Structure formats: C-alpha cells, structure tokens
Amino acid sequence: MVKINKKGEWLWWGIFIFTLVCIGFLLILFSIIGLHIKITDEGKHTGYVTAVETNGLIFKTHSAYFKSELESSQEDRYCVIDSDLRNELIEASKDRKRITIYYIDYLFAGWDYCKMDDIAIIVDVESTELKSIIA
Fold first, then answer.
1. Any idea what the Cα angle at residue 78 is, between residues 73 and 80, rounded to 5°?
2. Between 130 and 31, the higher pLDDT residue
3. Which of 81, 75, 76 is nearest to 106 (CA)?
4. Is the CB of residue 99 less than 8 Å from the CB of residue 46?
5. Residues near 118 by Cβ (< 8 Å), separated by ≥ 6?
6. Is residue 37 a contact partner of residue 105, using CB atoms and an 8 Å limit?
7. What tens digit of pLDDT does each residue of 33-77 get?
8. Predicted TM-score of the model (pTM)
9. What number of other Cβ atoms are within 10 A of residue 8's Cβ?
10. Residues 6+ positions from 95 with CB-CB distance below 8 Å
11. How many CB atoms sit inside 10 A of residue 4's CB?
C-alpha cells in the first residue's frame, strides 16, 4: 500500500483552489469591463436624435434613440460612452438637427458599456446641416 504524502496532497488542493479563484476573478472582470475586440459591425446612420437617457445605479450608461426621419415609427438605440458625444447628441435632439453618427460594436461590451445590451456604440457625430444646405 502506497501512502500519500499529506504535504503534497495539500499542495495540489491549494493549486486547484487558487486556479478556481483566478478563473472566477477573470470571469467577473470580463463581465464588468467586457472584451473590447471590435467586430464587423461598423457603420454610420444619418437622421435625428429623439432622446438621450441615462440608466444604472452602479454603472451609469447612456443610450441615444435615433430615427432616420422624424415621421418614421422605427427608432434605433445606440450606446453612448463619451460624455462629450452625449452632450452633442442632447444639443442635436433639442435643436432637431439632422446628424450622422458613426458606430462600432464590440464582441462583448460588459456592464459598463450599456449593460451588455447588444447595441452598437457611438464613436463620432457629424452635423449634416451644412451639407444639405450646400447640396
């Protein structure tokens, strides 16, 4: 009969528990900050901002609602992570200005980017008012 060394047994259990704790920590970390790998969803949308809202108790997130035409019944929702862009969108909404937004999507955004909703993130805003006057 072979005796198992108690020190060796505790060492393996310690390594096992440490590994489980590390994996759990990484899972929690990725669920909060996300995995910011840009995927193929990238584009632009021209229209009008109908509303900008802020949600969340711990992770404050901002969403912008967007229509291609004011009379349209279809409204798309985008995530806003930059406070300067958020302020631009609020002003565009107040002035009913036609703008173009540029957006991207991440593989897994995390709780701090719109609560892991499957929506694109606005990265830039461009006014189209001057373009329509010139054209």
1. 140
2. 31
3. 81
4. yes
5. none
6. no
7. 665 556 657 888 899 999 999 887 777 778 899 999 988 889 999
8. 0.65
9. 9
10. none
11. 8
Which tokens sit at 97? 């200005």
Q: What is the 8-class DSSP label of residue 87?
A: H
Q: Could you give the domains of the chain?
A: 1-33 (no CATH), 36-134 (2.40.50.860)
Nearest CA among 88, 90, 85, 97 for reference residue 48 = 97
Model confidence pLDDT, tens digit, residues 28-41: 776 666 655 566 57
Query: CA-to-CA distance for 80 and 71, rounded, in angstroms?
Result: 24
How far apart CA 109 and CA 121 sit, in angstroms, is 9
Question: Which residues lie across from 106 on neighbouring strands?
Answer: 38
Which residue has tokens 């909060």? 32
